[in-house]
């Protein structure tokens, strides 16, 4: 019951004047752009938490729940949890481990996650690093104590592709209780839905293609398993690494254009890869839709001949790679990927700088490797920029 407003003083009136009912007439569906709910806490009519109703912003927020619902639908998932970054999502997943557990992980994972996994040994967790795209080797490493198998469907930054169905079959044959975690950041559900192929958890750095505009940091974990969701939900709630309502709104906005963005990323990325194959100063090019790619047939079948804008290619040395990046004009030398802007980096000095030399060698991250995320600029302008930068390194 609202207080008698006419008797209230100035500041109380400012705080307690009710929202006009007409403002929400017909519910949120009337709003073509979803409303942003910024409230950090919510009124409890009965004084206690009621399941399904908002309580506190860290526990749940209408803007966040809306985003999680849409992401779940796109990834064919029953459950979705979003976090304040991709690394926070990864950390939440790793917090489910206990001393005595075992983790099998691809040796070509993103360096930040590889570093987190390497540190698990200090907590009594056994870590086995294997080829992240060899289902036979992955399956052979699984034992009765293996809690998690952590892989990328498309490796960062070497652009190798995992046969998900065969990997799931081999892992589950060895240990049906093992959780298979797949990072789908490089491809998105527009290209492949790992949960449909038997994976237990899908991870995204939503910062990348899911958001796609280099203005949000966010991560997500998705699963069809109620027990996994319950465990992760408690970690999300009480560790507190949750995204802001405004960031949730921005990512939700971006999902509306994900398909058309990915179509252009794919077309431009393939065109650039084909150009790079003709360049004498480029030693090798990795793009799954090139017939020479070692997992080309997997990409055709598993991904329906689709890919993102991700390319990697090798130059003669680390010096040549650094000079190439410095010579670019349109393509920006920067961390991250999946942006509207084309971005390039030298992984040995950036994404895997926190790894040991042996780890970089095992991952195939050589000093001359360049990772390029093709953006939404006109592809001919991107090619011209890459061409002039390659001319600048001809002496290296």
How much helix is in the residues?
25-40%
- How does the helix and strand content classify structurally? alpha/beta
How many β strands by DSSP? 12
Terminal CA distance reads 77 Å
Large-scale geometry: globular
Largest sheet: 7 strands, mixed
The mean pLDDT is 94
Percentage of residues in strands: 5-15%
How many separate helices?
Answer: 13
- Unreliable runs: none
Query: What string gives the helices and strands in order?
Result: HHEHEHEHEHEEEHHHEHEHEEHEH
Would you spell out the secondary-structure blueprint of this structure?
Layout: H1 10-16, H2 62-74, E1 79-83, H3 86-94, E2 102-106, H4 111-118, E3 126-130, H5 135-141, E4 146-152, H6 164-174, E5 179-183, E6 201-205, E7 219-223, H7 226-239, H8 245-255, H9 258-276, E8 284-286, H10 296-302, E9 310-314, H11 318-327, E10 332-333, E11 343-345, H12 357-363, E12 369-373, H13 379-391
Parallel strand pairs: 2-3, 2-4, 4-5, 5-6, 10-11
Antiparallel strand pairs: 1-7, 6-7, 8-9, 9-12, 11-12
Helix pairs in contact: 2-8, 3-4, 5-6, 11-13
Question: Which terms would index this structure?
Answer:
5-stranded mixed sheet, 7-stranded mixed sheet, 13 helices, 396 residues
Give a nutshell description of this structure.
The chain is of the alpha/beta class and 396 residues long.
What report would you give on this structure?
This protein is an alpha/beta fold. Helices cover about 35% and strands about 15% of the residues. It has 13 helices and twelve strands. A seven-stranded mixed β-sheet has the order 1-7-6-5-4-2-3, with helices on both faces. β4, α6 and β5 form a beta-alpha-beta unit. About 45% of the residues are buried.
